[in-house]
Amino acid sequence: MTRPLTREDFAGTEGTAYRVEIPEAELELVLDKVEELPPSPRQGGSFRLVFRGPADQVLPQAIYPLRRGDEQFDLFLVPNAQDAVSTWYEAIFF
Predict the structure, then answer these.
(1) How far is it, in rounded angstroms, from Cα 7 to Cα 36?
(2) Position 2 in a domain
(3) Angle 71-7-38 (CA atoms, 0-180°, nearest 5)?
(4) Is the CB of residue 74 less than 8 Å from the CB of residue 65?
(5) How many domains does the chain have?
(6) Which long-range contacts link 58-62 to residues 24+ away (Cβ below 8 Å)?
(7) Is residue 1 part of a domain?
(8) How far apart are the first and last CA of the chain?
């Protein structure tokens, strides 16, 4: 995607699976939340995405290519919580 991502690009897609290709595998992350953040000067507005992935394979904080259907874009993902079943990641646009 060449334009800035916006909250509207993700609004209403909670529950959608995104594919993340890493050197050793392909991982599925599910979009859990799309949250609006206070206004910022960022073109495209400010928002937060929360993704849920498997607990047994934790991605370190980094930029990853995510795929949804024919769309592909890079997101800086940060792992921020984990339980026995899932690891949660967030991407913040501010």
Answers:
(1) 7
(2) no
(3) 150
(4) yes
(5) 1
(6) 58/82, 58/87, 59/20, 59/22, 59/27, 59/87, 59/89
(7) no
(8) 18
pLDDT per residue over 48-84, tens digit each? Answer: 999 999 999 999 999 999 999 999 999 999 999 999 9
CATH code at position 17: 2.40.10
- Token readout for 28 is 């599925």
Task: Give ∠ CA 34-40-44 in degrees, rounded to 5.
Answer: 60
Q: What are the backbone angles phi and psi of residue 8, rounded to the nearest 5°?
A: -65, -25
Structural domain harbouring 33: 7-93
In a domain, 65, yes or no: yes
Q: What amino acid occupies position 13? A: T
